[in-house]
Every structure is written in structure tokens, then in C-alpha cells.
Structure to design on (148 residues):
């Protein structure tokens, strides 16, 4: 590791030098549906949260600081369909965000050397919170447990 860890996605640590990041954006979807009402404005009913999406953007300078191996590892996890634990902060004040699935990884390499390696590689990782059944399992399995 090159320095203090600011964030981790599974076993991949984002650091100040090496596999770093520039910005993080977050989107939480909590839709409301319109309920038609006669001779009045439609009422709204909250349907609950549907998704939480996070996008991490950064730039790697692999020749000087490294980091490409970590990005390649994240891509391999995405291709394998592996949910990863997303944690931000340091060891004393870390925040566990839960499991996330990588939806896409975009790379844009520039300034290539004579061997075809990019000296600068901008990346963007889009991920979505992994929706899990409740701790007791699905409603159907809970109901069948009561009946048997």
C-alpha cells in the first residue's frame, strides 16, 4: 500500500497514491406513485427505496504510482458477478455501506508509451447496492415455516 486507505471496495483499497480517486457521486431512488383522486389533485404514495447507486471516478498514473492492477481486479470481480463490501473512511472512523455490485467500468487511456501502455488512465466505476432478502429469508419461506 502506498499510504492511508480512504476507501475500500472488497479487497481493493483506494489510496492517496496508486489506486486513488477524484470524486464520488451517490444517487438514492425513492419513488412515489400518483394515485388518481376524483375532482382533486392526484395523491402520492411512497413505494419505498428502489436503489442506491454510487459512481467513483479517478485517474491512474500507473508508471509513477501504480494502481492498474487494482482496477483490473475490480473488472475481474465485475465480470465474475461478485458483490463487494464498500467501506469509506479510515480504520478508526470507517463507514460500512454494505454490499455493492459493479454495474460498469469505463476506462479512457491517454499518453501511450512505445509499448502501448497508457501513462494516464481515467476511470469510472458505477455500482449499485446489492438488494438482499431479509435476514429471515423471503416472505414465502417465512410463511412456509409457520405452516410446517
Amino acid at each position: 500500500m502506498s499510504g492511508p486507505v480512504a476507501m475500500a471496495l472488497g479487497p481493493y483499497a483506494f489510496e492517496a497514491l496508486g489506486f486513488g480517486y477524484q470524486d464520488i457521486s451517490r444517487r438514492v431512488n425513492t419513488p412515489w406513485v400518483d394515485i388518481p383522486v376524483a375532482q382533486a389533485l392526484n395523491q402520492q404514495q411512497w413505494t419505498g427505496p428502489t436503489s442506491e447507486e454510487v459512481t467513483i471516478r479517478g485517474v491512474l498514473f500507473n508508471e509513477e504510482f501504480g494502481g492498474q492492477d487494482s482496477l483490473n481486479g475490480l473488472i475481474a470481480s465485475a465480470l465474475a458477478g461478485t458483490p463487494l463490501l464498500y467501506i469509506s473512511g479510515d480504520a478508526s472512523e470507517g463507514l460500512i455501506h454494505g454490499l455493492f455490485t459493479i454495474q460498469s467500468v469505463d476506462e479512457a487511456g491517454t499518453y501511450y508509451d512505445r509499448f502501448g501502455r497508457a501513462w494516464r488512465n481515467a476511470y469510472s466505476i458505477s455500482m449499485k447496492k446489492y438488494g438482499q432478502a431479509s435476514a429471515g429469508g423471503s416472505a414465502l419461506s417465512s410463511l412456509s415455516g409457520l405452516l410446517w
Summary: Residues 5 and 91 are 8 Å apart (CA to CA). The chain has three helices and nine strands. Residues 135-148 have pLDDT under 50 and may be disordered. Strands lie at 5-9, 12-15, 23-29, 32-35, 43-46, 51-60, 84-88, 95-112, 118-129.
